[in-house]
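Risk register update: the risk of archive-format incompatibility is retired. Evidence:
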Amino acid sequence: MQTYLEKAEILTEALPYIRKFNSKITLIKYGGSAMENEELKLCVMQDIALLKLVGLKPVIVHGGGKDISSMCERLNIKSEFKNGLRISSKEVVEVAELMLYKINKSLVQNLEYHGVKAIGISGKDGFLLECEQKDENLGFVGQIKNVNEKVLLDLLEKDFLPIIAPIGMDKNANTYNINADDVACEIAKALKAEKLVFLSDVEGLYENYEDKSSLISKINIQKARELTKNTQGGMLVKLKSCIEACESGVNKIHILDGRLKHSLLLEIFTDKGIGTVITKA
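Archived output:
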């Protein structure tokens, strides 16, 4: 009986958050270990299905960096990074699009299994993500110029859960590989999302990454800007994107440890929460 009472208390704790975020858009950037480990993948899909079924409007942007790197290696295609971004030749972009399509449809299949109407698209569909070249030294890496949010709003209105692969194109129909964190932030801004959640391979942001006791639970934009001075690589790209999204109207941005089972539910539906929250004020 005690076990059942504890479960009831958990549901009661979640009730005000379910009420608060009902019908609100939550953008989830899904990647890292949470995507590669099958057990964690199942937990994340269950969490997202639950969010959808209790009335939230989740939208997923997914990565696939390790799968892309692995396939490039198998095909003997050179793949390297600069400042946290993958240098993308035409061959690399072709591999990226292929692997992201495979991942995308796998996520659709998984969510459909859990009773959610999901639909997978890339930034090419409906010209969702209009791009231009970010830096000629990076090759076909895209900088987003415009988000056609009507594509996603129409899907949400029809009760679909959109799952987006970070591939876009320009007006000349050139294909671009886009950093998934940038895609998540730009779409969250365009949709005026209530929350933007990053599932990553770290517990959150640290004052000093070498000191795991320096985890920051809550931080504002000004403090986040100061952190960029001592942050490098992929986390620097992520942090800059978060700051820009917060400045553009996304209410809260969460960086969570995707290696922790049900971290998404713990952050959104419990009083204590986990990870780091970035807020404007």
